[in-house]
Amino acid sequence: MKAETDTTLNRRTFLKVTSLTGGGVALSLYVGNREGQAQFGPPPAPPTPDVYITIKPNNRFTIIAKNPETGQGIKAALPMIIADELDVDWNQVDIQQADLDPKYGRQIEGGSTAIPSNYTTMRQVGAAARAMVLEAAADFWNVPVDELTTASGVVHGGLGRQATYGSLADAVSRLEPPDITGVPLKDPADFKIIGQPVPGVENFQMVTGQPIYSIDVEPAGMLFAAYHKCPVFGGVVESANVDAIRALPGIQHAFVLDADPDGSGRASGVAIVADSWWVANNARQQLDVAWNEGPTAVENTTRYDEQAAALSSRASEAPAGGGRGVANIGDVEAAFADAAQVLEAEYYFPLLSHAPLEPMNSTAHFKEDGTLEIWSPSQIPGLANPARSAGIENDAATMHLVRSGGGFGRRLYSEYDIEVAAISRRVSEERMEAGLPTVPVKLLWTREDDMHFDMYRPAGYHFFKAALDGDGRLTAFRDFVPSVSSVVPANEFPRGFVSNFMANSIPITPFSIPTGALRAPSTNGVSFVMQSFIDELAVAAGADPMQFRLDLLANPVPEPQPAGGRGGRGGGFGGGGFNASRAAGVLEAVRRMSNWDAAYPTMGNGRGLGCAFQFAHAGYVAYVVDLTVADNRQLRVNNVWSAVDIGRQIINPSRSRNLVEGGFIEAMSHMMDWEITIEGGAVVQNNFPEYQPTRMSHAPSSIEVEFVLSDNSPTGLGEPSLPPAIPAITNAVFNATGERIRRLPMKHDGYRWT
After folding, report:
1. Could you tell me which residues come within 8 angstroms of residue 480 by beta carbon, excluding any fewer than 6 positions away?
2. Of 194, 212, 238, which marks where a domain is finished?
3. 474 and 394 share a domain?
4. Pair (282, 394) in one structural domain
5. Environment class of residue 487 by beta-carbon count within 10 Å: exposed (0-12), middle (13-18) or buried (19+)?
6. pLDDT digit string (tens) for 261-278?
7. Cα-to-chain-centroid distance, residue 386
8. Are 489 and 572 spatial neighbours (Cβ–Cβ below 8 Å)?
9. Using alpha carbons only, how large is the chain's radius of gyration in Å?
10. How many domains in the chain?
11. Cis ω before 510 (30° cut-off from 0)
């Protein structure tokens, strides 16, 4: 679907009558988005409206879901907001997935941004549509609008008059639309859909195995592709036996693609295209490729570890220049000299692969007219790099958004779209030269491809030092991070609550492994190290770990001037917008839920209670974990309590609870078995046998979730639920055994889930 060229806000671009089976009216509602330029370049002035609501004569309503769906539930959540303000019942609504189009503004699944970016606008869309229906009914009955009410898609007037929205569709189509920013919105007390548990839009299809995922896309005549790349990052093909591969049964095409010289990011490799994916992938076993592995071939995890240890001798050096991502407040060295206690600890968490169950894939069709059509599971779909990889302009490409089987940040990077675009063009050119019609091509990575060519969660080396005074109060805190694309917690708690705070980093070099966002980027590893070391400080101070955190939060320390870089969406005290009262609120709630005050003193001898909290992506989450550690180091998480503050409104409580439960269980995978190690510039791990996820039998007996409503705009929950789960568990392990977990994954210390 192409962007409309008419960017003026008029009746034609605002409201259209569509030709539907049985007739109907589609409401094109003005949906501006200030952030649209981040994805599509400068926004139109004013932004282009697009179709969100279709009212059918049978009084059913089709609502567009604008954002990608990867399991986070946004395909229901955004239409729920529209439907509630439209004042229809949820069982009257059908959901239609949008294609990629700049008139929708940002179409992104990532960073828990969908709700805060779209909540108000989606309400305005629904309210504006309802206002138009009311105006049409008032004109028809010749009565004032304020004498009319709506419910369940029906307008009610005096004298027993009523009309369905569907019966008014034609009249609505002739009205001038209102300015949606001026249309009154519902009192949240009157919400009927928002705040109610709503099942996922495709739950039935999911559990009955119907083809709803990107991997299921299969246009007529489609061929299947495998793409073989150098196992060493940055390596390129020097030669390959593609002629021999072409001669194999079922193989239609085989060719080398160079690393893209135009900046799409495409890696060099050998493409094999066949009648079936199994044929294409099996042909990889007969490839004979000579690789130029490049400079990354000298890198390995052991070398990174050695450099980190060597760099730690520079931990006392003040940050140079006080730039982004560092902090130097007060005088930590003087505070260490005057302290009653000084504690030091080394923490580490490894590179991680995302490992979604559906491997990377995409389908593309480069057509005879030079246009490209893509079916993509991307979390942040965009045409620039796939189009560039195919050698065309953006306006010659169309992208359909297809549900993906898990993203977790992996599908924010679209190598699969970039690769399939180039493969599809080459296949089409070869077919046209042979007098054959062009056909779609599906590229599917193997599980091994997924693990070998990920954008990995950065590893973290953290060398901590902190000081306590004679009363057990924290007086200085320092974190030194030898960096492999690591996040430096320059704005994380306890910054702002201790007089002397320093965070600094020196890079480990060379480091050429691609890294990127994994669920709750910047805090998913940092929360483990920060909240664990704070727990160590509480124990050293002879304090209750829950109360120690609350006491810190109750005593902010003003900074004399801004220091260090901004923390971003996941940051803590600094530019991230940390609010101590909200953090204390979730801690107090989980303290009550878990009966912490009575239970914590009774723990030990194999049974432990641990707590942690985190501010991430504008949300606050605290956990208390009750677990058992057997003599053979098998762990059983018995019970989990979670308190969550993501603002004043929970859109869909069912999905929100699911996001907390899923975040906690995913964190269990992160901490016990998952790690990516590098040897000779390549990833060692291949598949799930070496990268075991949490199994159903490992899940906690219960995960109790309570939402702490606060007078703040609603935000997302995909990110905030994961980070504090890991330190809550490891802190509980210490409480049970007296052993502090400072290095992940825990399997290297002999631990296993029961």
Report:
1. 312, 314, 315, 462, 463, 464, 503, 504, 505
2. 194
3. no
4. yes
5. buried
6. 667 889 999 999 999 999
7. 21
8. yes
9. 28
10. 3
11. yes
Angle at 721 between CA 715 and CA 724, to 5 degrees: 130
CA dist 19 to 23, 185, 277, 377, Å? 6, 30, 39, 29
Shared-domain flag, residues 508 and 481: yes
334-358 in b/e form (b: 16+ CB < 10 A) is: ebbeebeebbebebbbbbbbbbbeb
Q: Can you spell out the DSSP letters for 324-368?
A: TT-EEES-HHHHHHH-SEEEEEEEEE-BB----SSPPEEEEEE-T
Residue with tokens 């039998």: 697
Structure tokens at 90: 């949820």
CATH code (residue 53): 3.30.365.10
Least confident of 29-43, 328-342, 524-538, 546-560: 29-43
Whether 485 contacts 564, CB under 8 Å: no
Residues 194, 198, 204, CA angle at the centre, nearest 5°?
155
DSSP structure class, residue 703: E
Q: Which residues contact 34 (CB under 8 A, 6 or more apart)?
A: 43
Segments forming the whole domain that contains residue 16: 11-194
Q: At a CB cut-off of 8 Å and minimum separation 6, what does 326 contact?
A: 319, 488, 490, 503, 504, 505, 564, 565
DSSP assignment of 562-613 equals --S----TT--SSTT---HHHHHHHHHHHHHHTTHHHHGGG-BTTEEEEEEE
pLDDT in tens, 42-65: 433 322 223 689 999 999 999 999
The residue among 485, 413, 417, 405 whose CA lies nearest residue 447 is 405
pLDDT computed for residue 322 by the predictor: 60
Contact 421, 389 (CB under 8 A): yes
Dist CA 750 CA 338 (whole Å) = 39
Which residue among 421, 444, 467 closes a domain?
444
Q: Does residue 467 have a pLDDT over 60?
A: yes
Which pair of tokens denotes residue 584?
Answer: 């204390």
Residue at 214 is within a domain: no
Reduce the secondary structure of 557-571 to three states and give it as a string. Answer: CCCCCCCCCCCCCCC
CB-CB contact of 228 with 446 (8 Å): no
In a domain, 206, yes or no: no
**Entry pTM:** 0.92
236 shares a domain with 190: no
Instruction: Name the percent of the chain lying above pLDDT 90.
Output: 86
Query: Is residue 637 domain-resident?
Result: yes
Quick one: 254 and 376 in the same domain?
yes
Residue 323 pLDDT: 61
What pLDDT is recorded for position 669?
98
Separation CA 85–CA 133 (nearest Å) = 12
241 and 306 housed in the same domain: no
3-state SS assignment for residue 28? strand
Please check whether residues 171 and 262 belong to one and the same domain: no
pLDDT, position 51: 61
Of the pLDDT bands very low, low, confident and very high (cuts 50, 70, 90), residue 26 is very low
pLDDT digits (tens, 9 = 90+) for 294-341: 999 999 999 999 999 999 999 999 998 766 689 999 999 999 999 999
CB-based contact 754:636 (threshold 8 Å): yes
Give dist(CA 15, CA 186) in Å, integer. Answer: 23
Tell me if 494 sits within 8 A of 378, measured CB to CB: no
Q: In terms of domains, do 315 and 406 share one?
A: no
660/586 Cα distance (integer angstroms): 14
> How many residues belong to the chain?
754
* Residue 211 within a domain: no
User: 609 φ, ψ to 5°?
Assistant: -125, 130
